[in-house]
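User: Structure with iron/sulfur cluster, tokens only please.
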Amino acid sequence: MNQLKPQVNPPLWLLAELTYRCPLQCPYCSNPLDFAQQEKELTTEQWIEVFKQARQMGAVQLGFSGGEPLVRKDLPELIRAARDLGFYTNLITSGIGLTEKKIDAFAEAGLDHIQISFQASDETLNAALAGSQKAFQTKLAMAKAVKAHGYPMVLNFVLHRHNIDRIDRIIELCIELEADDVELATCQFYGWAQLNREGLLPTREQIARAEDVVHQYRQKMSASGNLANLLFVTPDYYEERPKGCMGGWGAIFLSVTPEGTALPCHSARQLPVQFPSVLENTLQEIWFESFGFNKYRGFDWMPEPCRSCSEKEKDFGGCRCQAFMLTGNADNTDPVCSKSPHHGKILQAREQANCTNIQINQLQFRNRANSQLIFKTGV
Ligand code: SF4
Ligand code: SF4
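Assistant:
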């Protein structure tokens, strides 16, 4: 048995989840189901201290996300501090709450990059998914304003069974808005997306059709000199091997929740693992010494079939959160893997996707009332 400690390099990427507050209610939100119980947020000074420590350790990229990070009034101050420390900064936003004035303030503070997420390519579907009538027009206006300010712009669409068949119109909209990069990412099933999985998972046929459309657009766009990058991410529910989650547990990525819990991936707080707080430990201690960050590093923790598998250095046994959500034990092989004894759960979900008829209005929307109800009833 290999008892050598795995080599641990410092984190490269810090994700600052500034808040769980958000005006929208996407039923696929990756925030925790009990977000309404977590009302505390780090102060401006506490966040800046986190940025300083991460930068001292060598992190180079800093993402501001949430919830909706725009609800933090100190966002320009946080951006400026991050930029002064030498981070490449990225704002991940729904665009709701963005104004021309704020874009000016962010540009002045040194923000490098803005990613705006859309729910759909048309107003009606966007409103049904976001739970807001005004959201679509605001997003359009802000996407144009972001572009006009000279930012490289990423547009992000989360795809699922209710919008994936309109992928051609989604791409057309991205072309019209002159996006530099387009992320067409099928729902990953964490948080609210996992709760609504049966009503969100596309069928294999839907994914194949969408892939085909993306392929045609790539050819068409490149022939017309449009260099925008179309990234299409398929759900791992239709794969036979899991993804190498976060490049490995505690390998390059560090996420900090609104109230200061440090996590090796943004959905790990659901695991029955004690994760440290940035209010009680330095990032150096958290990253190199904490129980939570070391728990799934290396290969010694792995059960079979991963332990003796020749592919373990490629995928690290898959996603711990997915293993926990689908098997009740985070140590297990990710059920996406066809070698997993729990792979049947994935096959069952695929079957379900072929038969289900869940409509958008039957999904559980991510809002405070639902979050409180889930917490109370423990659903
Ligand atoms: S996914 Fe939707 S609800 Fe969740 S934080 Fe983003 S915009 Fe808000
Ligand atoms: S058995 Fe484990 S290591 Fe091997 S391919 Fe499957 S998930 Fe990856």
